[in-house]
Design brief:
heterodimer; A: mainly alpha; 3 helices; elongated; B: mainly alpha; two-stranded antiparallel sheet; 28 helices; 72% helix
Chain lengths: 101, 664
């Protein structure tokens, strides 16, 4: 029978796949950002679970860093999306390809 | 001021004038431009007089080194080539001609060019030319001379094409430049061989190291140097086969024709041969070739001159012909008379060109002698000085050309490398000269006026200020004519024939032989040692002189009789000669021959190189190389789609791959 931390690890893997699929296949930037949040939280869950399994505190410390970074990322990302919407009147990722080679 | 500084000033003042006019006085009034340009030549003339009649006349030689120039390792040591000037009696003569005739022509040009806009360009080029010409004759070694040699070529190109908006003029300039370059190759090769043989390019060093033993051991090399030098001379002094540029060079303004293409630049070949006389005389082959080329050129150009109708073209072919005489003089070993004829020719041909320019100026750029006639009444000074110039060039007894030309002809028969056939060729050329010069003078200045009053040519400038009446030009144009006329009369007395000297009770050598003794004594000794004394005699000299004078008189009389009624006088002869006349009228079709034999094959070769080398190889590499790069990069640039989701997919794939690589 799986222990709770182990279950958390497997769950984090599933959560990561969901986030990854969202980032890769979503076309709306807002949803892509939400998926990025899911990715980060999947990583957080993996850190915390690993911390419980190994009995060390490191993973939990890193989790707080990641949360702080995620908060910053969300703030900056949302601001960028608003700025983009104002200039392009769209938040579709496929409309933004000015840097195409 | 010491002599060295004076010599440097003589060389550098014309350069200063060129720089001032070319860069700083472009907006200055015409009078300032002309004054600066003329003073830049006149002051060196005064200095040259002081130098030549002072220390040089008393037997000194002035040598000065402006700066160290070239220093290259050679063999075990170093080949040092300083920018050194030397003034001896030979360069002294040239110096006086260049600055003296040059000043007069600058003065004249100030008036002649007064219609032109932006005349600073003309005078800057003219001053630059004088600078180059001076470095040519003052250079103490071949490299400095070569610098001047190239410099005069460039200035000649610039001045022939002065009215460059007309494409024919630009083409004439290019032709002159290219023909000169062919000759320059000869000079360069001669220079390289001198370095190889003597380890030096300094004239006095070469003269000192060239012993009879060295000459006989390296006879083929000496001959090669002489022949290469002849190629250089043929280019610069317009000899067969490279003379073709000089007649076309008449496209330039007439003062340019007078200064560059009559008095100075074209004579630099004679200067070079006299300078190198000590070397040339070691090779009979080279000397004979020089003499034959000279005689052939003299006759060949004279025949073309017979039928030309453009006043400047006649004078151009006559210049080529006279240069042939000078080269002939050098080739038979009478270098001093080559130089003497150089000097008298500088006077009378500059006079004739300036006179022609005076006529052209008064006629508003009409150059066809069939549309002139009777001008002597309207332009007496130009007319009579032109007559003096003509008498000088045809060798009328007492005028300068008589003495210098007859001495050359005498030595063509009796000189060390002389031969009666050379004399015959020369005398025929002289006969032609008499005919075409008298024809020219008669048609322009005497007989009925054939001037069409309403007819105007011009180079686009404003002719409305002039009355249509033809009149004499102002003093700035006539003063040079008068001075040159005086020298055209008295200039020849430096080369009095021995026969005449005996009669008037003078002993020893004539003035030019005495003056040039230090320069040509080595050559004379070599010729004497190898070939014995020259085999002339007083009787022969009198006989040849009498013959050529008689021929001259007959031909002149014939020309006057023929053209008394006008330019159509020669038509009956022309008709009788038929195709031969047309051949001469087309200048023996030499230009066409060169076009077919040299230029067209070269063009075809160039075309082939263009198609294979340029189109296929170079453009192939240039075009196909980037095309390959483009194909590769276009695949790569497709990856950079600009779509975030694609990048993320790539990151995903990459991370998986990286993980697989690390863990498996």
């Amino acid at each position: 029978m799986l222990t709770l931390p182990e279950l958390g690890l497997y769950f984090s893997f599933l959560l990561f796949l969901v986030g990854l699929a969202g980032v890769m296949f979503r076309k709306n930037i807002l949803f892509m950002m939400l998926s990025v949040e899911i990715l980060l939280n999947a990583a957080n869950l993996a850190f915390v679970s690993a911390s419980r399994i190994t009995g060390t505190i490191d993973g939990q410390v890193v989790m707080f860093f990641v949360m702080a970074v995620a908060a910053c990322e969300a703030a900056v990302g949302l601001a960028l999306i608003i700025a983009l919407y104002r200039t392009k009147a769209s938040i579709e990722a496929d409309d933004l390809k000015a840097l195409r080679g | 001021m010491n002599y060295q500084a004076m010599l440097a000033a003589v060389l550098l003042l014309p350069l200063l004038g060129a720089v001032l006019n070319g860069f700083f006085l472009r907006k200055a009034p015409r009078l300032v431009t002309v004054t600066v340009a003329t003073l830049a030549i006149a002051v060196p003339f005064v200095l040259s007089c002081a130098l030549v009649f002072g220390p040089i006349a008393s037997g000194e030689m002035i040598r000065t080194e402006l700066f160290k120039w070239i220093s290259v390792p050679l063999g075990g040591g170093w080949l040092e080539i300083p920018f050194a000037l030397s003034l001896d009696r030979l360069s002294g003569i040239l110096l006086l001609i260049i600055t003296g005739v040059g000043s007069l022509i600058h003065l004249y040009a100030g008036e002649y060019m007064h219609h032109e806009e932006g005349v600073y360009r003309f005078f800057a080029y003219l001053n630059l030319f004088v600078f180059s010409m001076l470095s040519l004759v003052l250079g103490a070694n071949m490299v400095v001379t070569f610098l001047g040699w190239e410099g005069v070529g460039v200035c000649s190109y610039l001045l022939i094409g002065y009215w460059y908006s007309d494409e024919a003029n630009a083409r004439a300039g290019m032709k002159a430049f290219v023909a000169n370059r062919v000759g320059d190759l000869g000079f360069l090769l001669a220079m390289f061989m001198s370095v190889k043989l003597f380890g030096s390019v300094d004239y006095s060093a070469i003269a000192a190291s060239l012993t009879n033993e060295l000459a006989s051991e390296n006879a083929p090399m000496i001959t090669a140097i002489g022949l290469c030098m002849l190629l250089g001379v043929a280019g610069k002094s317009a000899q067969l086969p490279l003379y073709i540029w000089l007649p076309d060079a008449m496209a330039g303004p007439t003062p340019v024709s007078a200064l560059i293409h009559a008095a100075t630049m074209v004579t630099s070949g004679i200067y070079l041969m006299t300078r190198m006389s000590f070397l040339l005389v070691h090779s009979s082959t080279a000397m004979t070739t020089i003499a034959v080329i000279g005689a052939a050129t003299a006759l060949f150009a004279a025949t073309i001159g017979l039928v030309q109708n453009d006043i400047k073209k006649v004078l151009a072919y006559s210049t080529v012909s006279q240069l042939g005489f000078m080269v002939l003089g050098c080739g038979v070993g009478a270098f001093q008379y080559g130089v003497a004829h150089l000097m008298t020719h500088a006077f009378f041909k500059a006079l004739l060109f300036l006179g022609a320019g005076s006529v052209i100026h008064a006629m508003h750029h009409e150059q066809d002698i069939r549309k002139m006639g009777g001008l002597i009444k309207k332009m007496p000074i130009t007319g009579w000085t032109f007559v003096i110039g003509t008498l000088a060039i045809i060798g009328f007894p007492g005028f300068s050309g008589f003495f210098s030309k007859d001495e050359i002809l005498y030595y063509a028969w009796s000189g060390t490398f002389g031969h009666p056939l050379l004399w015959v060729t020369g005398a025929l050329a002289a006969a032609c000269t008499s005919f075409y010069m008298v024809r020219l003078t008669y048609l322009v200045f005497f007989g009925q006026s054939r001037v069409e009053h309403a007819h105007h040519h011009g180079h686009g400038h404003d002719d409305h200020h002039h009355s249509h009446e033809i009149h004499e030009n102002p003093w700035t144009m006539t003063l040079p004519l008068v001075l040159l006329a005086v020298f055209s009369i008295i200039g020849g007395y430096v080369s009095l024939p021995h026969a005449i000297m005996h009669v008037v009770g003078l002993e020893g050598d004539n003035a030019i032989t005495q003056w040039l003794y230090p320069v040509i004594s080595t050559a004379k000794e070599v010729m004497k040692a190898a070939h014995g004394d020259a085999h002339g005699s007083s009787a022969l000299e009198w006989g040849l002189m009498g013959t050529s004078t008689l021929v001259m008189l007959i031909m002149s009389g014939f020309a006057i009789a023929l053209y008394k009624a006008g330019p159509q006088g020669g038509d009956s002869i022309a008709q009788a000669a038929g195709g031969f006349y047309r051949l001469i009228l087309d200048k023996w079709r030499v230009d066409e021959l060169y076009q077919a034999v040299i230029i067209e094959p070269l063009k075809k070769l160039g075309d082939a190189f263009f198609k294979f080398g340029d189109r296929a190889v170079i453009e192939g590499i240039i075009n196909e190389g980037p095309r390959g790069i483009y194909l590769v990069t276009s695949v790569l640039s497709d990856i950079q789609s600009g779509l975030v989701r694609n990048y993320l997919k790539l990151v995903f794939v990459a991370v998986i791959a990286l993980g697989a690589w690390i863990f498996i």
